[in-house]
Amino acid sequence: MSPRITLAVAGRVLVQLRRDHRTLAIMLVLPCALMTLLWWMFDDAPGPVDQFQKLAPGLLAIFPFIVMFLVTSVTTLRERSSGTLERLLAMPMGKLDFLLGYAIAFGLVAAVQSAAAVLLSVGALGLDIEGGVWLLTVVAVVDAVLGSALGLFVSAFARTEFQAVQFMPAVVVPQILLCGLFMSRPLMPDVLEAISNVLPLSYAVDAMTAVRDDTATGDVWGDLGIVAAFVLAALALGAGTLRRRSD
């Protein structure tokens, strides 16, 4: 692994994204648009509980996670199917250089994406956060990077872009259902709670909820540490399973 090569790969990906205005707009604008839609849905809704305040922190983790998973998995597969990955790996560059370069590039985009969604939610949409906007932004960025890492990992098992998209119901949707957004995890059946305890998005949503409620900062960093461990594991597994080109 070479830091110089890794940064060169990251720079190449950032240049490509800058030229792809449609993908860049989806990555940066879509989470903000979805948060605005959520606020609009519940703006005048009756009831003792403000549903936007209840759901928004968890969705600030989920929306960037979904977007980065889709974009990263499809983009990586496109590199392989077009032969670009094979040409890159023919150079003095390892698989880990390639994956880390992609992770850095998409991580930077994820930071901008998550910061924009958080600032919009707190500043314009009135989301009340007890634990601090900066900490909420850090959690959102780590969650988006998690989506990128899982996207890089699953792209190794797809042969077409359509197959890459099909991994979303298998990898992403179960995590959304079991992450605690719709039902508290301790209230789930024992088997489902046990499954949720080994899914990274559960800890991402826990961290967001803890920041909202100003729970002990140690709990937030503990959850973030678990999410970061999943990121590193996904990148390591991705390096081991990455194929040079589609069969």
UniProtKB/TrEMBL annotation:
Bilayer-spanning residue ranges: 24-42, 54-77, 98-127, 133-157, 164-183, 224-242
UniProt superkingdom: Bacteria
UniProt entry keywords in alphabetical sequence: Antibiotic resistance, Cell membrane, Membrane, Transmembrane, Transmembrane helix, Transport
Source organism (scientific name): Nocardioides panacisoli
Subcellular localization(s) per the UniProt record: Cell membrane
Principal location class: membrane
PROSITE patterns for the chain: ABC_TM2
Residue ranges annotated for the ABC transmembrane type-2 domain, each copy included: 22-245
Protein name in UniProt: Transport permease protein
Pfam families, sorted: ABC2_membrane (PF01061)
Signal peptide: none
Topology term for the membrane: Multi-pass membrane protein
Family recorded in the similarity comment: Belongs to the ABC-2 integral membrane protein family.
